[in-house]
Amino acid sequence: MKEAKYIWKNGNLIDWHNATTHILSHTLHYGNGVFEGTRAYMTKRGLAIFRLEEHTQRLMNSAKILLIQCPYSKEELKNAQIELLQANKTCFSDNVYIRPIIYLGYGAMGVYHLNSPVEVAIAAWEWGAYLGKEALNKGIRVKISSFVRNSVKSNMGKAKAVANYLNSQMAKHEAIASGFEEALLLDDNGFIAEGSGECFFIIRDQRLITPPYDNSLESITQNTVLTIANDLGIEVEQRRITRDEVYIADEAFFTGTAAEITPICEVDFRQIGNGRRGEITTTLQDEFFKIVMGENEKYNHFLTYIQ
């Protein structure tokens, strides 16, 4: 990780190495915390945060779902992210990843969490392509995991919760240990849910297909891709997908703040399409990067420029 100079914590900018927390912080022991992943892109006009409003609203929604009372308003958190990038401006020469987190600090132990103080921190650092720069062109190999996505009967997938990602870690490890780059998880009914940290798309007969939000996060990048597809006149379906339908897809790709649009060339040793980035995936990817780099005026409202 390429360190920056400052981290924003509880209303103040502090030195990166002073951004510490107590070993008895409640979230560390019991997993009740929420976070966001937001990107800022180095456009021709300078650094610009992509869909800051939507990401910050999702952070607030996640906290509400998990009964965490955030001590800051949405506007205060938006301004804090802008302030942090401005303060670290000289540290950045490329695209930046922003990680706000709302967590429970030191003050009480035991499963009951409302007696614990609420802490808020935001970090930002330079981070390139999550699955590797080459993956954006060549695609990645994916394994359908033996781990099932958290059920809506036992967890709350609409919250970007710290605890939810233990499931993702185990699936990711299994995939890498088996020689793949990423995992694809099924839901508890056996249908495709999502990747370890990404939403999933296939293309069949010129139609773009993605699973519903039954037990997964409401993805902002997924929404962006669906918006682009509608602009381009690509037919879109949001419905259940079986694993065997994935094997016979013409194209497939992951989306997410970190993953952006990453093509999938193979799933469970089955080649997808021609084994490389497909035509529609390429078109969507090109349009996506035009938007985030400020080259599509129609979507300039998605960008918050850092002065």
Task: Provide tags for this entry.
17 strands, alpha+beta, single chain, globular, 26% helix, 307 residues
Short description:
With about 300 residues, the protein is an alpha+beta fold. Helices cover about 25% and strands about 30% of the residues.
Q: Which structural class do the helices and strands define?
A: alpha+beta
Radius of gyration: 19 Å
The whole-number mean of residue pLDDT values reads 95
Largest sheet: 9 strands, mixed
Helical segment tally?
Answer: 8
Can you describe this structure?
The structure is a single chain. By secondary structure, the protein is of the alpha+beta class. It contains 8 helices and 17 strands. The strands form 2 sheets. Strands 8, 9, 10, 11, 12, 13, 14, 15 and 16 form a 9-stranded mixed β-sheet that branches. Strands 1, 2, 3, 4, 5, 6, 7 and 17 form an 8-stranded antiparallel β-sheet that branches. The longest helix is centred in the first third of the chain and has 14 residues, at 52-65. The chain is globular, with a radius of gyration of 19 Å.
How are the SSEs ordered, and which strands pair?
Elements: E1 6-9, E2 12-15, H1 26-30, E3 33-35, E4 38-43, E5 46-50, H2 52-65, H3 74-87, E6 96-104, E7 118-126, H4 135-138, E8 140-144, H5 165-177, E9 182-186, E10 192-195, E11 199-204, E12 207-210, H6 220-231, E13 235-238, H7 243-247, E14 251-256, E15 260-267, E16 270-271, H8 279-292, E17 303-305
Parallel strand pairs: 8-9, 8-15, 12-13
Antiparallel strand pairs: 1-2, 1-7, 3-6, 4-5, 4-6, 5-17, 6-7, 9-10, 11-12, 11-14, 14-15, 15-16
